[in-house]
Design goal:
nine-stranded mixed sheet, four-stranded parallel sheet, binds threonylcarbamoyladenylate, alpha/beta, binds magnesium ion
């Protein structure tokens, strides 16, 4: 029997109620968040969580982020310390995930057997409404097949998981475009960033008043503390090379089967193989357009893609982290 394609739902009250029922009975929904789209299931139901791993083709040693609607739920699923409360108050709802000791209510499959759980309160209004309607914490990794480019629209989710899931909630294009900043707070005196995102180390430090360690060391295979740190991740199928700056002259004279993705529109250069993340190189727009551009270029089957690093503060780290992984061999 052919697998039916996922239904894409608008965020009307009626559709949200229907999707809440889907989640409560243990099935999955592709959901919009302000960072990237997620693949959500009831975090308290091991069977629902198993479906998430299966749909993504994700190894079960790569734990899931649990999404909550309000601060009270944090205490139900994790054991927060003072540092966690400060960061939650400052940045939630928003693109920040906290790793904390977990409570027994969170099944082992969610945390891949670890005694910790990753928690985030997302900001996207439709996902928040859905969280409220279900009354449940929802486990949701990015809604892409394991290792492929993260989705930032309902169409992206449908394109890569549409045959594996039945429902997607359409919340428009993700506003931020790169996944949340993950902070390991298991030792509150030594907070560590496991994955850079829109919330920067400087912002975290300003709230915590302690140094925050950026943890960019890439562990060897299998030894990942956060598999978001896996060297190769978010990868297009086309081989990618990362450059500090792309040369307009080289791009102009290159073979037509080589794609070039600039940070900023290269004036006076056009071609079917020339792309850019933002007209003026603004980092917020570059982050927002990054994954959609990688997908668009990837499906055109160029022989290779030349990527240009972001320069500057703030989001540059998060963008470069994704570019590095896309280019990792
Ligand atoms: O912005 C985001 O965080 C998106 C949206 C959907 O919320 N989610 C997301 O999930 O990026 P995912 O599964 O693609 O990445 C989650 C990362 C993984 O690298 C995982 O290893 C890490 O979070 N993680 C989850 N639980 C953890 C834990 N207990 N300890 C350390 N890392 C953990
Ligand atoms: Mg992911």
């Amino acid at each position: 029997m052919p697998t039916p394609s996922a239904q894409i739902h608008p965020g009307t009250p009626q559709h949200l109620r229907r999707l809440a029922a889907v989640l409560r009975r243990g099935d999955l929904v592709g959901v919009p968040t302000e960072t990237v789209y997620g693949l959500a299931g009831n975090a308290l139901d091991p069977k629902a969580c198993r479906k998430i791993f299966r749909a993504k083709g994700r190894p079960t040693h790569d734990p899931l982020i649990v999404h909550i609607h309000d601060h009270a739920q944090l205490d139900v699923i994790a054991i927060p310390n003072d540092a966690a409360r400060k960061l939650a108050r400052a940045f939630w709802p928003g693109p920040l995930t906290l790793v904390l000791p977990k409570r027994a209510i969170i099944p082992a499959i969610v945390s891949s057997g670890l005694p910790s759980v990753a928690v985030r309160m997302p900001r996207h209004p439709l996902f928040r409404r859905l969280l409220k309607l279900t009354g449940l914490p929802l486990a949701a990794p990015s809604a892409n097949p394991f290792g492929y480019i993260s989705p930032t629209s309902a169409a992206h989710v449908a394109a890569s998981l549409g045959k594996k899931i039945a429902h997607i909630l359409d919340g428009g294009s993700s506003r931020i475009g790169v996944e949340s900043t993950i902070v390991d707070l298991r030792d509150p005196s030594a907070p560590k960033i496991l994955r850079p995102g829109a919330i920067t180390p400087a912002q975290l430090q300003a709230v915590l008043r302690t140094p925050v360690k950026a943890f960019h060391r890439i562990p060897s295979r299998g030894a990942a503390i956060a598999p978001g740190l896996l060297k190769r991740h978010y990868s297009p199928r086309t081989p990618c090379t990362l450059h500090s700056r792309l040369s307009i002259a080289r791009a102009r004279h290159s073979a037509a089967n080589e794609a070039w993705i600039f940070q900023k529109r290269p004036v006076s250069l056009t071609g079917k193989n020339i792309f850019w993340l933002d007209e003026k190189g603004r980092l917020e727009n570059a982050a927002r357009n990054l994954f959609a551009t990688l997908r668009r270029v990837d499906i055109q089957k160029f022989a290779c893609i030349h990527l240009e690093r972001a320069h500057g503060d703030g989001l540059a780290d998060a963008i470069n982290d994704r570019l590095r992984r896309a280019a990792a061999k």
